[in-house]
Amino acid sequence: MKTATAPIRLRDYRAPAFTIDTVLLDFKLDPVATHLTATLSIRPNSAEAVLGRLELVGDETVLKSVSLDGALLAPGRYHATPSLLVIEDVPDTVFTLTIETIIDPSANTKLMGLYRTSGNYCTQCEAEGFRRITYFLDRPDVLAVYTTRIEARKSEAPILLANGNPGESGDIPGTDRHFAVWHDPFPKPSYLFAMVAGDLGVITDSFTTMSGREVELRIYCEHGKEGRCTYAMDALKRSMRWDETAFGREYDLDIFIIVAVSDFNMGAMENKGLNVFNDKYVLADPDTATDADYANVEGVIAHEYFHNWTGNRITCRDWFQLCLKEGLTVFRDQEFSSDMRSRPVKRIADVRTLQARQFPEDGGPLAHPVRPEIYHEISNFYTPTVYEKGAEVVRMLKTILGPDGFRAGMDLYFDRHDGDAATIEDFLAAFADATGADLEQFALWYAQAGTPQIVAKGQYDANARVYKLTLAQSVPSTPGQLVKKPMHTPIRFGLIGPNGADIAFDEVSGARVEGDVLHLTEASQTVVFGGVGARPVPSLLRGFSAPVRLAIDISAEDLLFQARTDSDPFNRWQAVQTLAMRNLVTGSGDVAAGRSPTVEPALVAALEGILSDETLEPAFRAQTLQMPSEADVAREIGHDVDPDAIAAARKRLRLAVCEGLGNTLFVRYGLLSGGGQFTPDARSAGRRALRNTLLDLMVAGGSRAAITAALDHFETADNMTDRLGALSTLAHAALPERQRALDAFHDRYRDDPLVLDKWLTLEASVPADETLDRIKLLLHHPSFAIGNPNRVRALVGSFAGANQTQFNRPDGAGYDFLADFVLDLDRRNPQTAARLLVSFRSWRALEAGRRARAENALKRIAARDGLSPDTLDIVTRTLA
Ligand code: 0A1
Ligand code: ZN
């Protein structure tokens, strides 16, 4: 096995020996030999600088020359490798270093640093991409003011963009070239630098801030796609307004620019004043985008915009503090979307994502704290734990402090740290100082990995009118952390009385209870509620008030009652999920043991109740009818998982539900048809979601009538949500009718790569033996391109991440395929390769046969020479 380089540890953090105050970048763009002159004003920052040795980092960086205070340095005065530039005997006061580098953007397949996308130039610098442009103190605690001059052939790049406000621009006389200068007055770390140049279409708008300043807004995209940018522009303006009202945050430059590009490793990037987006999160129109796409565009636009304060004005001291900007900004974008749409529906969607993505990470070999303490490759820490669990920790803080305390803490944080590179300690101190709260125990949420388990047990004494609730918490061991402490966990709750309303209690002991929040702080607590007039059904963790697993001893009847009555919509949904999950876990066991699974009547009754409750919004009813996925069940079972047994049990359950609901499904489906003109708002989307969910359940029944309805739904759809809804139903049911529909879909959108990603995804998701061969064939299809991360994720990512039975084929062919693909991709784009490899994270929970085959595939990857640091890191930790 390969040995990795030494890890980076939080405890080793030292302030930089030097710092950089101003940066002047002068790009002369060329497809294969871009010249960059970087002029840096550097000054000693700590005692270590007195030694006079300056070290700047690079990454495959090609040096042309280096000058100090205007004088060219002779080769003997410095030492340069592709990853390091060392200059001895630098002055002990301010000095100017001028570095010339040469960059080949066309050869950059890693999509980090300066690269090309669709013939344009674009940069990506987070986390450590700036060093691929020039040698630098490429760390987030070095904040400088940047001025960027870009020069290019006019025909090649009529548009020249960088961070900040536009300055001088014009033609270069006697040449076919022109230039533009941009100046960003806000000091920023290098990871927020961006430059974009090329031939792009644009839409423009403007926004007047709360203090009356006019901000110019622009969204750039490929020519011809301008019409698909209007929803993003609308979302941007709503985000800007929301940040003013919800957090008092105003935009600060004269212009805000978004550029949509088609080759991008992640979702989007918050570069100061010049956000660069994966075009998937910008472009939307009814014919090409689903309702889910619209919601994602809105959420990602908001996320990147909100980073202007949480990330840019206040940045991170070091990469261990990544959740300081990411967890907080995810929390902010989730709140924004809740305000724009339906709060309960958004909450359920977010919790489902958390449980599907973060819980398996926390429960497997890649588990790490929200604020890690050690890493080998920072690119591998843009994880669901840092992002989504990080957001949950901020949400708990708000639950504990209340809305006013939370806002006071945020205000103090912005006030105190504007312009700083801050830490989690700084963040928590702002809340503690603003409210007087003691957050010492709460801080463990940042330090301890693993999903806490809470076991709850209730007991009612009718004579004493006392309800006793015992809550025990434990945090499982995770890599590098064997023993954990109890955490401060806010449990929102209610005691549901016989008439469905919450019962009052007149006294409580055993825990701090404030309003509807119970503060769990010990390993075990018995909370005694007095004056309780009837046996209550406990409703715990309302709104999913903490990212924990709750095990509660509650009967099917009580769950059915809760599903009908709980005043908290989240827990109505949860009650049905719990019923369904119990059925699925038992059913999977039955299938594995050769018994025929039975379906609990209470579950069908609960679903029926939700479906016919007209007071509930359609989107909520759709979410409830969807039931746990195969992956959800696998996670719940947790060991010796047999994906085929789970799939069979789930299929059986859906058939039984379809039969149980009978004609109601068809009738309700019919009633929802004919929605009129498409609008992307949450209400109309909810109707479509319910109609598509009903169709999916109808088809689960397997009748000819249902299949005909699905084909008809596909053919008559006048928007992408319905078209794709029907198509995924056909594909996920692996019906023979699917292929003609998939082919028709491909032909209709043959020139639209973003839409073809949906096609690739569905092809890869079919739960049928022939799928793997089909994928191998599609790797050579003209619509696939290994150089484009969206294509790779659509075809290979969906297969490994979502096709439970086929990725986990008992013969191991799915694992072997992924291993081969990752090894191939690793030489081209390590970040994307390493992310695909994460699909192996739960391999130890599989039954013995699959476990052995997965291990072999992983070991084969680990044994390969020349792995990237990204892939080496993931494979090593996954096998550890
Ligand atoms: N900060 C971005 C995420 C991001 C991280 C790394 C990247 O490198 C390829 C790109 C984007 C965000 O949270 O949106
Ligand atoms: Zn972010």
Automatic annotation (TrEMBL):
CDD domains hit by this protein: M1_APN (cd09600)
InterPro entries assigned to the protein according to its UniProt record, in alphabetical order: Aminopeptidase_N-like_N, Aminopeptidase_N-like_N_sf, PepN_Ig-like_sf, Peptidase_M1, Peptidase_M1_dom, Peptidase_M1_pepN, Peptidase_M1_pepN_C, Peptidase_M1_pepN_C_sf
Origin superkingdom: Bacteria
Pfam families: DUF3458 (PF11940), DUF3458_C (PF17432), Peptidase_M1 (PF01433), Peptidase_M1_N (PF17900)
Domain Peptidase M1 alanyl aminopeptidase Ig-like fold: 450-551
Enzyme Commission identifier(s): 3.4.11.2
One Gene Ontology molecular-function label: alanyl aminopeptidase activity
Keyword Chaperone on entry: no
Keywords carried by this UniProt record: Aminopeptidase, Hydrolase, Metal-binding, Metalloprotease, Protease, Zinc
Homology family: Belongs to the peptidase M1 family.
PANTHER family reported for this sequence: PUROMYCIN-SENSITIVE AMINOPEPTIDASE
Record-linked NCBIfam families: pepN_proteo (TIGR02414)
Protein name per its UniProtKB record: Aminopeptidase N
The organism of origin for this protein: Kaistia dalseonensis
